[in-house]
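Re: export button greyed out
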Amino acid sequence: MSFTPLPQRIEAILRRAIAQAQSSGALPPVPDDQELEIPIKPAKQSHYASAVAMASARLFKAKPLDIATTIGEHLPENELIGKVEVAPPGFINIWLAEAWIQQQVEVIIAAGADVFSLDIGGEQRVIVEFVSANPTGPLHVGRSRGAVVGDAAARLLEACGWQVHREYYFNNGGRQMEMLGRSIQARYLQALGEPADLPDDGYKGEYHVELGNTLAQEVGDAWRDKDWTAFKQYAEEIVFKNISATLARIGISFDQFFNELDLYDSGAVKETLKALGKAGYTYDAVTWKGASEEEIIKAKRQGTEAATWFRSSQLGDSQDRVIVRSNGDPTYVLPDIAYHVNKLERGFARAINVLGSDHFTESQVVKYGLAALGYDAERVDVILHQLVHLMRGGTRIGMSTRKGEIITLDEVMDETGPDAIRYFLLSRSTDNDISFDLDLAVKQSNENPVFYIQNAHVRCAGILRQLDERGYDPDWDRNADISLLGEEERSFVLKMLEMPEQLQMAYENLAPHQIAFWTLDLARAFHPMYERVRVLHSDVPDDVGKARLRLYRAAQIVFRRALTLMGMTAPDEM
RNA sequence: GCCCCCAUAGCUCAGAGGUCAGAGCAGCGGUCUUCUAAACCGUCGGUCGGGAGUUCGAAUCUCUCUGGGGGCACCA
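Workaround output, generated via the alternate export path:
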């Protein structure tokens, strides 16, 4: 069952009113080259409001107040709008019909778990790539923002009618992985009591020491003469399991882990290089064409051989990028482009990448690469989130897997629980960076609004539990007369009915945090009502109680829907 | 130097060009005899960083200045 956001439905009615006013001569026709926009927004002084009269004053060559009045007079018959008032300088204030609002309680109950789904995607396929952390160590808190945001974006897309494929780009090629292999090799040899030095850029963390120790216990000295690739393989497997377990714990699963190495094995990387060359976008040189004298001198001093460059500057980049190093190894750029070609060739209508802002340039270059190869780079959207700054007691601490400065997501979840960390990371605009003070983590988790939201669900469940405990018929409210719902209940229903438009807005902005805020808003509307609007109370007549129980059933469905969309649990008891 | 993001209440943050700028926390004062108080009610708190522009209308769009964060590797 799919819903249409209320503003769209109201807009359609106003459009018909305008058309009727035009055919009766009360408003002039709109010139063919012009388009009439009809904005509808939730308002404080009414349920919804439209500023269409102000926006169209020039178009209709009339005063906004007159236009608004005319539109109001030509409203077609409909069950949705109950009352319309015009307010200076020309707002059309709209109240929905009480009876219609009340009926929506039954609509929500009938829709059930998938309530308020939209049909924007038309079941097209979309790939959402997120996390994609190098498998060099456990998932740290900084990375978890992308995980939470990415998963919420995927759930949002599903609610908007897309078929979502969740993918983790597994960066198991490249220099970092070699470094991991060599580091574990060194730790292993050290565990055997042999002298071995960690590489200069090696992984210094306690986690990697333990990996070496564990391996030594498992295989004894049998691996003494193996080269780094075996150690890399071993570490990669363990780290992969570790990351998967962490993600599972916070409720994230992937349809596919896409191995970077497969792009090499399949020849895709070479093909991409060839295709870029064929399109005239590569050249071999020591520095990029357009490099400053400073850069040229520096390159000469280093005695660098020629590398292969991607002429991205021709597509708007500030400079060209190396895609094959002078030693013959591709940089990350080339497999990245190959990967995105692969995504689009797999038939996804859209590709959405969730990245930290430190990967901004990378995402740009990938788009230039796709454009160079004749693909529509617009099919790729990037959700770029600012970074999470780890703090301890008010001072910032570093976060580097290589240096072993790591606060893992698991450690934080041990303290706060998955739901609290999810909400904390989700409830901020991706444009803002987040300060995460570990010393305040527990305190913050107690103040975390997620409990306030979950408690709304708990309270709904509590009423149903009482019903059972007091021996009521579970279908007690079967034929409730919902017209007995009062003003306060109706305004809460109205709040629930905002969900489709909230989903649409969050979808259009690719901004899952808006759902987090709206859900909190809904909880703020819920709790005060709950205090006053009782169901099983001696003061409440049975027929009113039944109507109210319908309302709380609907509320429970909507809270569960919203919590699930954010990847959180909807508990029956706190 | 170039690119991206940010600046809104004491703090953390929302804010879809529209009617008087909103929450939570903190502060102050209240509320548990009926579905668990992780709750409710009241109150205090603002030159929306500065300046110019576009518009009937700007926290929101443009430019500029200031102050922060991130990026601009033959790392990913």
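Chain A has a mean pLDDT of 93. The button fix ships in the next patch.
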